[in-house]
Each structure stands twice: as C-alpha cells, then as structure tokens.
Automatic annotation (TrEMBL):
Topology term for the membrane: Multi-pass membrane protein
Top-rank lineage group of the source organism: Bacteria
Keywords from the named record: Cell outer membrane, Fimbrium biogenesis, Membrane, Signal, Transmembrane, Transmembrane beta strand, Transport
Protein name from the UniProt record: Fimbrial biogenesis outer membrane usher protein
Lineage, uppermost ranks: Bacteria, Pseudomonadati, Pseudomonadota, Gammaproteobacteria, Pseudomonadales
Predominant location category: membrane
Source organism of the structure: Pseudomonas rubra
InterPro entries: Fimb_usher, Fimbrial_membr_usher_CS, FimD_plug_dom, PapC-like_C, PapC-like_C_sf, PapC_N, PapC_N_sf
Length: 840
C-alpha cells in the first residue's frame, strides 16, 4: 500500500494539497514555468486507467495556490507587523485572480490618513479602496498558504502615535464578572524559647466588574497563638475610567498619587491621571526587595502600616520583584522572621523619577476626603491637588497643594531631561503646622533627584537627597503633632537614597543605600545592600552584603557567598557561606530540582550549620497546578521544629460559571474554547481550559494590545481550531473575554475506486457538502480528508461535465481503524445522475 506518514500535520496549500507536492510540480516545471502557458504532463506517469480516461488532472493543482471569491478569516499585517485577524471579502478580478476588499473603515482603523486622500463623499460611498492607486508606494499582497494579507503603506500616510499608544476607541470594558485572589500561608511549630506556636495568614483581594465600573477590596487576616487575631481591610473602592482626560475616578478607600507628595491612605474621592493610558515610556515603578534568609523564613512587606505581601522563602538569598506597591514613593518595611522565631527588619525607601513629562503632556490628581491611617486613630480631613506639565526643551514643571484646617503644604518643582547625562529634578516645599499646644511651626523641605541609564549597562535607578528645616512637618507628623501636646520634636532632617544596578554579559551588580537622620536627636537610620552575581562555565556565583543601623531595631550585618552548580534536568546544587554581625559563620548546602513533564513541580532540600544555633535542615515542595499554586515545607533545628503550607490562586465568576486559576493581576483575561477541555494557553503557562472550555489569563497589560495564543500542540486529533490567536485591548481592571471556535472533525484516509474498478484521476478535487475543497486525489485513488463529524459523503470532480464527477458515501460501517488519529474508508465513487450536476 502507498504510505502516507501523517500528511495532515504537514503545511498545506489553500486548496488542501500538501505543499511538498506543489513544490515538486514547480521543480519539474522549471524556473520558467511562471511564463509557460501549459505544463507537459508527460513528465508524470499515469496511475491506472478506467472510464475516467487519461488518469491525470492537474488543473486543480495548478490553481491550488489561489482561493475563490468569498468571505475568509485572514490575518492582516501592516508594514510587517501583525494588526488584527478579521473576515475580509475577496472579489473576482478576472483571469483567475482575486483581491481583498479593503473598506475605508478598515483602513481608518489601521491609521491610514484617508481623510487627506479622499473626499467625504468617497469615504462614505466607496465599497473598496484601491490602496495602490490612492497612495504612492502602497501595496497589497495575499499569502494563500497562511491566509494572510500583507499591506504596505508609507509612513507618511499613517497616523503617528507614540509607541505603545492605543486609541481609547479600542479599549474594552470586558465582561461583568466577580473575581477573588486568595493567598493562605500557615505554619505550626515548637521552639525552646516560645513553646508551641501556630500562625495563619490569609490575604483576600476581591472585586466585581459591572459595566465600566470596578469595585475592589483588600482584606488581611492574621491569627497567631501568641499575639492573637488581627484583621485589616484596605483599598475598598469603586473606580471607572475617564478616557477624555486620560484619568480615573476613584470612590472609597485608596491611596493618593505619590508622584509629587508621599502617598497617603485616604477615604473619599479622587480624580487622577492613569499613566497606563499614555505611551509605554510613562509607566510606573515598583521596587525590588532583596535579602538573605538563614532558615526557611517568612518575609512580610508593609507599606504605610498595611501588609502588602507575605511569603515563605527557602534558606539563602531571595528576591521579591512582583510587588504591587501603592503609590509612587514612600517607605517599605521588610520583616524577615526565621523559622526559630528570630526577627530582622529593615526599611527600604523608594521613589521614582516619574515626574518628568514629554512636551505638552500633563498629569493631574485631585483628592478630597479624610486621612485613613492603619492604626485607626483620628481621621482628619485631607485635600490634595497636583499637576505636572511638559515644557519645551525637555523641562517639566510640577507642583501641588496638600492640607486641611491645621496643615498646609505647597510644593513647586522643576525637572530636566539632560540627555546623555540623565535626568534631574529639584523641588521645594513650604509647610505650616498648627499643633495641639497652639504652637505654629513653619519650615521648608528641598529635594534633589537624579536618574540615568548608561550605555555600559549601568543604571542609576534613583538617587536623591532631601533636606528639611527644623520647623517642617510632613502630613503624618502634622497629624500626630495636632493630636498630641507632647509631640516628639525629632522630625526628619535629611534623607539620602540611591539605587545602582549594572548588567554586563553574565555579571549583574546592584547597590542600594539609604540614610535618614532627625532634628534634636542623634538617631540615624542606615541601610546598605550590595550584590554581585556572575557565571563561569555554567557555575553561578553570588556575593551579598547588607548592613543596617536603626536605633529601634539595633544593628545588623550580613555577608554571604553562594555557589550554584547545575546538575541537569533543571536541578542544581547550592552552597553558601554567611558571616553574621557577631562574627559567627553559617554554612548551608542545598539541592533544587524540578519534576513533571512541564516542570511545574519544584522542590528544595537544604541542610545548614550555624555557630550560633547549631544544625538545621529544611525541605519544601511547590506545585503549579492549573487551578492554583500549592506548597508545603518542613524545617527543624536543635531548638525548634516547624511545618508550613501555602496556597495561592484565584477564581472568576462569570455568566457561564466559575473558572479557577493562578493569582490574578490587576487586569486579566478569560479564554473560552466552546465545549473543549484541556486546551493550554501560551500566555499563562500551566493553565488549561476546564470542562466548560474556560481558562484564566492572570496578567494582561491595560490599554495595550494583548495577543492571546492557544497552545494547540496537545489537542485531541478530532478537534480543529482554525485560528488560535486573538487580540484584545482591556481597560485597567477589566476581565476581557477571548472566544475561540473549535470544530470536531474526523481524519479519514479514503481509498476511492470508480464503478469500473479504476481510480479517479490524480489531482482531481474532493469537495464536501458545502462545495468547499477538502482534498486532492493522490496516487492509487487515495485521499486524506478532514471532515466535520456529521459529514457522510463527498464529491470528486476532475471537470465540469457530469461524467467528470462522482460521489462517494462515507458511512460509518465502512470505517476501519488504522491508527489513533485516523481511520480508513474503502468507497466506490458513484457517477453523477446528469449534467445538471445533481448528486443522488
């Protein structure tokens, strides 16, 4: 028998013929075939005879690279970049040629300046635009093999938007849905110092989307057998977009914008620019928190007294780079709690140089409400207004007012882009505070900030200095002074902070430092972190050093050297040596690995010895399931034992049911492949569609074109998805739905014979019930078909006359299993009844 090695998996031409056959015919025809009127069929041997006459028909093959007139779903590429996938009409142009109809509406969506090229009457009456005739240098071509239309338009004829900008007309509110993020960590253990102890931490981030409104609320529950129960709720608000002003309206509990003043928690109303609506170059910033854990430790990050993040990390260096920090500046308090109960803290100030704006660009905020402190003390009124505007010559002016009945602050600043020398800003703040003791304090604060990314790979992400006079108060200090007659006069005097990073080849270096001192006291806070990571012959080396000095927490320092040796299969061995502030040393050896087909199961095993606390060990395992992230760990030493578990995930409730997934970001997607389970999504590794065909994409970029791609590699052989790619533009916080159509089909190897025992001609077309070409007859009458499961007959055509056509039945009784992916059918092709072409 003639062998066909899974040919339905090979690329095919538009007519269904394997491209290898097309290329073979082209090679036989020779390089001049494009100009030849005929093809010499004697080069090909006839396969049998019979009533069909000469058993060869190449007309279908010759036309196989073209498509007929009609509607087709095609990919559209503009100047070699993917634009969209849409259904276009293809019209007959004569001489066997078809052309895509490009409507004025489509071209306007693509940014073509048709208003300058056509009058209003033409824009409203033209059905299709001849782009090449209207725009000099424009061209349109069609790739039938990939069903793609390539459009070339000179840049001068296109609208020029900033890179990454998407018109508000394309923003999608998404669907009405409810969502919930959950993160649960629990630990239970025993230590000689504290006895038995259990801890439970639960973070909930829930919301509801209705129309263009987004309702959100964060909650935090902590249960400790020693400290008791603690409940916090923050960021409970409703929000909607204001596209005309590139901003948002927020009602409820949230944080003020931190680009001019430090970010403050408030309860009230806020109008503010959303920089995500602007080009990519104006996006926000969140800091990276780094440190070293001596045991399997709990790391918690707080901002303004509110807990933002909590997780357990294995022994060794750790890095938290997925914080969703509230506001653009302030102080993050990092708490590292070791498994034996020891606790270390440090403060990481952060800020951005995001107050620089392009010429004629602007940013604003207006907040009215009350101060919403985490300690639930007095809630004085709060009002804030800020504005930044881009001036010519790369200058930016910014300023704002902040205050209430006992505090007023006014800030004015100027920023400058220095080109190759980086960027700098200088501002001054005048503040007046009325205290509880009827004393009025006034003062000034001056700030200098600098940022620069060097061509060598070094970047100064932030460097700044702020000096405040003795009478200056920030808002939090003013609230405390107003409510307490015994106000501590140790207000902030100066603060220095800097962050430097360098990446070159296989070496990375970072340096973070900060220092803050106070009036009328010798109190000083210092924090220094230094890290170097490099690689030599697949072995990674790391050096980490930190030193902190804070009066209330004492002094601490660490120096750690680590080595990581790959062992293959995604596993590695790790060695580390740490010197502590008291001169003692810790040694640690560990093994990390991955398991499973996709590597979604990871595990860590560590053993260590400390001159201070003796020997200890830990083991942990984490699994990235399609519906959540799961983890568990054990650790123990000479004076303690501890077991911990962690669970993180999300759920989205929508009109058709409930979908579970990984931890959600601010903006998310919902994939729907109708009635098709276990389909992967390339945007969200580890997730697959559930029994109803739904899957969650945890992270999407708001106000940007997001490409959603299905992973069809492991699809059932009876399932076909014609287009596994979609493009969506979500608003911030939206749940956008991307739907895909899946068709059930049967893969059939059809062996055809004519009623006289011969075979249909080689190259004859095979049509389904919709008269669409689904295959071409090969040698020996074999045809490979992909047909809808309900189809039970096909038509074979090698000419227009009735005697040049026949039909064959594909009844289930005639099917023979050949492999797991296709079945074989032996069928006799029955003649057509008459020249009218009517199938019996």
């Amino acid at each position: 028998m003639f062998e066909l090695p899974c040919p339905w998996r090979a690329p095919r031409s538009a007519g269904g013929l394997p491209l290898a056959v097309v290329f073979t015919l082209a090679a036989v025809a020779g390089p001049g075939s494009a100009h030849s009127a005929t093809f010499d069929s004697s080069f090909m041997q006839s396969f049998g005879g019979g009533s069909a006459g000469p058993n060869l028909d190449l007309e279908a093959i010759a036309q196989s690279t073209q498509i007929g007139p009609g509607l087709y779903s095609v990919s559209i590429r503009l100047n070699q970049s993917f634009f969209d996938r849409r259904e276009l009409r293809f019209d007959d142009q004569g001489a066997g040629e078809v052309a895509a109809c490009l409507t004025p509406a489509l071209l306007l969506d693509m940014g073509v300046k048709l208003e300058a090229l056509l009058d209003k009457a033409q824009l409203t009456t033209l059905d299709c635009v001849d782009l090449a005739a209207v725009i000099e240098g424009a061209a349109v071509s069609f790739d039938a093999a990939y069903l793609a239309v390539d459009i070339i338009v000179p840049q001068i004829a296109l609208q020029r938007d900033a890179v990454g900008y998407v018109s508000p007309s394309e923003w999608d509110d998404g669907i009405n849905a409810g969502m919930l993020n959950y993160q649960f960590v629990a630990a239970q253990g025993h230590s000689d110092d504290q006895g038995s102890n259990s801890q439970y931490n639960l973070y909930l981030n829930g919301g509801l989307n209705l129309g263009g409104w987004r309702l959100r609320s964060n909650a935090y529950l902590s249960q400790d057998s020693v400290l008791g129960r603690q409940w916090q709720r923050s960021n409970t608000y409703a929000q909607t977009d204001l596209p005309a002003t590139f901003g948002t309206l927020t009602l409820g509990d949230s944080f003020t914008v931190g680009d001019v003043f430090d970010s403050l928690p408030f309860r009230g109303v806020q109008l503010a620019t959303d920089m995500g609506m602007w080009p990519d170059s104006l996006q926000g910033y969140a800091p990276v928190v780094r440190g070293v854990a001596e045991t399997r430790a709990k790391v918690e990050v707080l901002h303004n007294g509110y807990s933002l993040y909590s997780t357990y990390v294995p022994p060794g260096p750790f890095e938290i780079d997925d914080l969703n920090a509230a506001g653009g500046s302030g102080d993050l308090e990092v708490i590292i709690t070791e498994a034996d109960g020891r606790e270390r803290r440090f403060t990481q100030p952060y800020a951005t140089l995001g107050n620089l704006m392009r010429e004629k660009a602007w940013r604003y905020s207006l907040t009215l409400g009350e101060y919403n402190a985490a300690d639930e003390g007095d809630r004085p009124k709060l009002g804030q207004a800020t504005l930044a505007y881009g001036l010519p010559a790369d200058y930016t002016v910014y300023g704002g007012v902040l205050g209430n009945d006992f505090y007023q602050a006014t800030l004015l600043g100027l920023g400058k882009n220095l080109g190759h020398f980086g960027a700098v800003s200088l501002d001054a703040t005048q503040a007046r505070t009325d205290g509880a003791d009827s004393r009025r304090d006034t003062g000034q604060s001056y700030g200098l900030r600098y940022g620069k990314a060097f061509a060598t790979g070094t970047s100064v992400r932030f460097a700044g200095y702020r000096y405040s006079t003795e009478g200056y108060r920030d808002f939090a200090e003013a609230v405390w002074q107003h409510d307490n007659a015994t106000f501590d006069r140790a207000t902030k005097r100066s603060r220095v902070q800097a962050s430097v990073a360098h990446n070159f080849a296989s070496t990375a270096f970072y340096l973070n430092l900060s220092q803050q001192d106070y009036w009328n006291t010798s109190r000083r806070e210092r924090q220094l972190q230094l890290g170097v990571n490099t690689q030599y012959r697949s072995v990674s080396y790391g050096l980490y050093a930190s030193k902190s000095l804070v009066d209330s927490f004492g002094q601490s320092s660490q120096i750690a050297l680590s080595v990581s040796l790959p062992l293959g299969g995604g596993s590695s061995a790790n060695l580390a040596l740490t010197r502590n502030d008291d001169g003692s040393y810790d040694e640690r050896a560990g093994f990390r690995g991955r398991a499973g087909r996709d590597g979604h199961l990871s595990y860590n095993i560590d053993a260590s010895h400390s001159e201070r606390s003796g020997s200890s060990g830990s083991a942990s395992v984490n699994y990235l399931a399609p519906f959540a992230q799961l983890g568990a760990g054990l650790s123990g030493g000479e004076r303690y034992e501890q077991a911990s578990i962690n669970l993180a995930g999300s759920l989205i409730a929508h009109a058709d049911g409930l979908a579970l997934g990984h931890t959600l970001g601010e903006t998310m997607g919902l994939v729907h492949v109708a009635d098709t389970a276990d389909v992967g999504v390339l945007n969200a590794p580890g997730t697959r569609t559930n029994a109803d065909g739904y899957s969650v994409i945890p992270y999407m970029t708001p106000y940007r074109k997001n490409r959603v791609s299905l992973d069809t590699q492991d699809l059932d052989h009876n399932v076909d998805i014609d287009n596994g790619v979609a493009q969506v533009v979500p608003r911030r916080g939206a749940v956008v739905k991307a739907s895909f159509e899946a068709k059930r089909s049967e893969k059939i190897l059809l062996n055809l014979r004519l009623v006289d025992g011969g075979h249909p001609p080689f190259g004859a077309q095979v049509l389904d019930g919709e008269q669409q070409s689904v295959g071409v007859v090969g040698p020996g009458g074999q045809v490979l078909l992909t047909l809808p499961e309900a189809s039970n007959q096909v038509r074979v055509r090698w000419g227009k006359a009735a005697h040049q056509q026949c039909w064959a039945s594909l009844e289930a009784a005639g099917l023979e299993p050949v492999s797991d992916t296709y079945r074989q059918v032996q069928a006799t092709c029955q003649p057509i009844a008459d020249d009218a072409g009517v199938t019996p």
